[in-house]
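A favour, since you know our structure tokens better than I do. Could you add the entry underneath, on a fresh line?
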Amino acid sequence: MSCMFKNMNPKLKSNMITYGMVIVVFVIVQAMVSLGMLSSLVQGLLVPLCVYVILALSLNLTVGILGELSLGHAGFMCVGAFSSAFFSNVMRDVIPVSMVRFILAILVGAAAAAICGFLIGIPVLRLKGDYLAIVTLAFGEIIKNIINTVFLGRDVNGFHFSIKDVASLKMDGATGKVIINGPQGITGTPKDSVFWIGIVIILITLFIILNLIDSRDGRAIMAIRDNRIAAESIGINITKYKLMAFTISASLAGVAGVLYAHNLSTLTALPKNFGYNMSIMILVFVVLGGIGNMRGSIIAAVILTLLPELLRGLADYRMLIYAIVLIIMMLFNWSPKALEWRERNLSKLPFGKKKSAKEEA
């Protein structure tokens, strides 16, 4: 078995290590939960941890693999969250089996976010750099504000829609039920999100992204990132591949939104949930973990999500320690001296050996 692992393709070996890391962490956490070694506070963070890991991985596809800066990722998460929560509330009586309903909700959230990503990507991906970042940021804010103005109810006569208030829905008093209540959001969404489902979705997300990177389409996407003009000169369809990466990234962000929505009793489109700060936080995970490094994104998302809660007892120094950790992680990942040290020492490990020129070719 060890000989087989040693002779394995380097990329496949790296991918297997990443999958294995996620599975080992899941087993350890489950064992700690069963033994009562985790507090209720940490247990409550397990599903949000999965959400942030999926968001970091999906944004890394846009930022690290495609090479475009997007600040509207929270908007795609918002689309997935609200579309899936709406579906689950409407179909609660029609589909009583919670697991079947939740799987369908995941598909609905992924499809809704993918459609938004595709429609937004057509005009937006013609822009570059700061211009693209500003437009995607505006998209995220627009989505959040639109949802805050929507009032949607249902009675025996069907659905009723308004952008004024609940009273203007004019529903039947006996059978009417408000589903989306403007700034108050959606209440009563089934809490179907559990830790093991989050881990399964992380593994599926990794499988999609890592296989895309290793595919012909992935090589075309990275060629566009490295040199757009050279890629176009050899016949690569720039628009097609940029849209492909952007749409897949948006769809995976929508799946994270589904997981997020089904972990809350009340879902609201508040700035702290789906606003600018959320998009920046996801970008921080990507940058600190290493742009294009999926394993690093997972580690950064876990550390930076757990750290503020674990330091909550140090009330006056909590954010100071958090800031120091951010600086240390940034220096470790991007400082030239740290990069030299990592290359010199990690290359001694079995999975850290540098590839030969023949292997890289």
Remarks:
- Strands lie at 151-155, 158-162, 177-181, 186-187, 266-267.
- Residues 351-361 have pLDDT under 50 and may be disordered.
- The chain has 17 helices and five strands.
- The CA atoms of residues 88 and 105 lie 6 Å apart.
